[in-house]
Specification:
- The protein is globular, with a radius of gyration of 20 Å.
- The two termini are about 20 Å apart.
- Strand 13 and strand 14 form a beta hairpin.
- It is an all-beta fold and about 375 residues long.
- The protein is built from one helix and 24 strands.
């Protein structure tokens, strides 16, 4: 169990903040690792969002997405894209993945770790939003409901050009479920750039092209219910940045797009160069994890590292530094999770790991395992 590994490690009370907030501050030594797969191997899956529920047998639930077996998923009629999978665990270490339904629609769970058996719980639709990609799940358990924000991509053919050119409509959708398996989705996006249909992104031959002034493609949400409202951090495209960090709130019905208010977008981001945000709250303190770019070549790979920021209000952030779980660039898409283990507050960060190929010493872009790092906070 991860908990047993953690409790055998030295106690670290608080995460120290540097005076400068420099991203280059190495925080790796403040964390514990075992460099082993929590889930995997598989073809290309990542973004392991975990929630805890009142279930003695399986208190931990995970949603993750991508391609389980090959570079596609077996659904839809027009496009084969990312889909969201679901798993459950008793101890955060051993996971059973949803494998479809059996007699009387009873869920089946794969305990063997065979991705060929895994069945998505949210995948693309044949028309409209989500017709290509459903991914980046962020789930909250509240009042007997699982509530999910997730990324959606819709490809729309150019009527005036060639079939190889397609408009790309990217946005954040919502869904709710009683069991985490069967989901009711919103008909319209929760969040979408107000100029997404005018200043349009083009996918030409697999390459995404954005026109001048494009600040759309709202994706990769991190959802929280806090202080009587829904809070949602996301990222979006911005000229001159890798991606920018945005933010929105909803004080009413999560599923009603009209009740969402965007506070940070366009030329007013919360954070620069901040993809794949994962935000948790510990007491009165918010922590924000990203696989941010901007690190020098000697620190590994393409210059992206797991990076941490903190805030007292979830709005204004100070970047604390970076973490290299594997000692080099091979770990992306962090998802933070806070729980109690034998009375102690534990902070886990699950991340996707990709291997280095033997033949040419380059990174395989596909994530083959989900791994974890952790620390005790009290």
């Amino acid at each position: 169990m991860l908990g047993l590994l953690v409790l055998g490690a030295p106690c670290a009370a608080q995460i120290a903040a540097p005076a400068s907030g420099d991203r280059l501050r190495d925080l790796t030594g403040e964390w514990q690792f075992d460099h082993k797969a929590v889930l995997g191997p598989f073809h290309n899956l990542y973004n392991p969002r975990i929630v805890q529920v009142a279930d003695a047998a399986y208190p931990f639930r995970m949603w993750f997405f991508g391609y389980a077996v090959k570079d596609s998923n077996p659904w839809g009629k027009r496009f084969l894209g990312d889909a969201i999978f679901h798993a459950r665990s008793h101890d955060l270490r051993r996971w059973e993945v949803y494998a479809g339904s059996g007699v009387d629609d009873k869920p089946l769970w794969d305990t063997t770790g065979d991705p060929k058996l895994w069945v998505p719980v949210v995948s693309g639709l044949d028309t409209g939003f989500e017709d290509a990609i459903a991914g980046d799940p962020s789930v909250v358990w509240r009042d007997g409901w699982y509530t999910m924000a997730f990324s959606s991509v819709w490809f729309e053919s150019h009527a005036e050009t060639t079939p190889q050119h397609m408009w790309v409509i990217a946005c954040i959708m919502g869904a709710q479920s009683r069991d985490g398996i069967h989901w009711q989705r919103t008909k319209q996006p929760l969040l979408i750039w107000d100029k997404e249909y005018q200043v349009r992104m083009d996918a030409a031959g697999g390459i995404f092209k954005t026109p001048d002034g494009y600040m759309g493609s709202y994706q990769r949400p991190s959802l929280m219910y806090d202080q009587g409202r829904w809070k949602l951090w996301f990222d979006y495209m911005h000229p001159g940045m890798f991606v920018a960090g945005g933010y929105a709130e909803n004080r009413g019905d999560f599923m009603d797009p009209k009740q969402w208010r965007i506070l940070n977008s366009d030329d007013n981001p919360q954070l620069r160069d901040w993809p794949n945000a994962s935000v948790v709250k510990i007491g009165a303190r918010y922590l924000n994890f990203s696989d941010a770019p901007g690190y020098p070549g000697e620190m590994g790979g393409d210059g992206r590292q797991i990076t941490m920021a903190e805030s007292s209000d979830g709005l204004a952030w100070k970047v604390l530094g970076h973490i290299r779980p594997e000692g080099r660039e091979s770990s992306h898409v962090p998802e933070a999770f806070v729980t109690k283990v034998r009375g102690h507050t534990m902070l886990y960060v699950f991340y996707a790991w990709k291997p280095e190929t033997v033949s040419d010493a380059k990174w395989d872009f596909r994530y083959k395992e989900i791994r974890c790092m952790w620390r005790r906070l009290d």
